[in-house]
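can u do me a favor
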């Protein structure tokens, strides 16, 4: 069996043809200066520019370059998922293709994984060269993510991260969950999560592919990943528990309303018909909702046990 590589660098990209040659040369220099065996796995997320042609030309000069090309744009999470599947290095890095992440950080982050025992090391762009319209929403977003997850990271969305190989093979990245890989890793049992201040560069070519809508998606994804981490394997615990509580509350209230009417009648006290009381209908609504939630949990359990792999992407080309 071939000796395992020291590092794998997974680079998701979309229309970044101008920066790829400079990025690969930079990574190659850092790897050789530190005597690291490496591979660069470029995942072209359905680019419409000359990105794939540039990758093909780079393969001739840099044999360590590997590439996967999607037939259409699936998003960063899909690109990371297939990149993680293909990675063979002992330590796996993720890095954006726009030259804002510095490959010079690779040796120090690798040492944190191997020598200090971290499972995951996330970059922290303490000094950012993004416009203020991106910086302040990002600060609030990271504060919320820290509060919900309990993971003390300053920059969940930093593209530069290092992982022990077994981490990327264990986490399941889908939808827009690339922002929350540290949370997914924690709930997979990898709790040694560290952080390193990294150098951030101004964008040299092109423009950002992310707009303000990613902040809205980010919060929706945070709710999703929090729910899935706790109840994704056993939805009955959430829906069944909530449904049972509502059923008991509604059923108990209904019994109380009927019993009160019977007691009042038998003792000659003023009374109201059961169906004349708004509380009766609220109780019935709680019973119905409780049954529906319980059934939702039951169906969720059935679907969870029969669902095929959700991560299927149309790959149109590869370079090995």
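np, heres the sequence
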């Amino acid at each position: 069996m071939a000796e395992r590589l020291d590092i794998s660098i997974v680079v998701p990209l979309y229309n970044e043809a101008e920066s790829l040659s400079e990025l690969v040369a930079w990574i190659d220099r850092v790897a050789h200066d530190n005597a690291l065996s490496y591979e660069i796995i470029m995942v072209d997320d359905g680019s419409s520019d000359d990105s794939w042609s540039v990758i093909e030309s780079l393969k001739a000069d840099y044999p360590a370059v590997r590439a996967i090309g999607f037939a259409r744009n699936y998003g960063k999470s899909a690109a990371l998922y297939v990149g993680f599947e293909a990675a063979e290095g002992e330590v796996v890095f993720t890095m954006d293709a726009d030259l804002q992440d510095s490959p010079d950080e690779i040796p120090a982050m690798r040492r944190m994984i191997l020598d200090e025992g971290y499972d995951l090391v996330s970059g922290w762009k303490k000094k950012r060269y993004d416009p203020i319209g991106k910086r302040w929403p990002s600060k609030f977003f990271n504060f919320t993510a820290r509060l919900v997850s309990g993971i003390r990271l300053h920059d969940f969305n930093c593209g530069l991260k290092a992982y022990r190989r077994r981490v990327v093979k264990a986490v399941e990245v889908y939808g827009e969950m690339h922002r929350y890989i540290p949370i997914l890793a924690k709930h997979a049992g990898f709790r040694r999560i560290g952080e390193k201040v990294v150098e951030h560069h101004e964008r040299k070519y092109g423009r950002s592919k992310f707009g303000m809508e990613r902040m809205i998606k980010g919060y929706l994804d945070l709710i999703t990943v929090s729910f899935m981490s706790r109840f994704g394997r056993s939805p009955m615990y959430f829906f069944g528990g909530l449904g049972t509580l509502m059923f008991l509350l509604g059923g108990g209230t209904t019994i109380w309303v009927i019993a009160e009417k019977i007691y009042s009648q038998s003792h000659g006290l003023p009374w109201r018909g059961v169906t004349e009381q708004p509380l009766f209908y609220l109780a019935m609504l709680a019973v119905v909702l409780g049954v529906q939630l319980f059934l939702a949990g039951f169906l969720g359990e059935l679907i969870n046990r029969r669902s095929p792999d959700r991560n299927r992407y149309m790959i149109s080309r590869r370079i090995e």
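The chain has a mean pLDDT of 85. hope that helps!!
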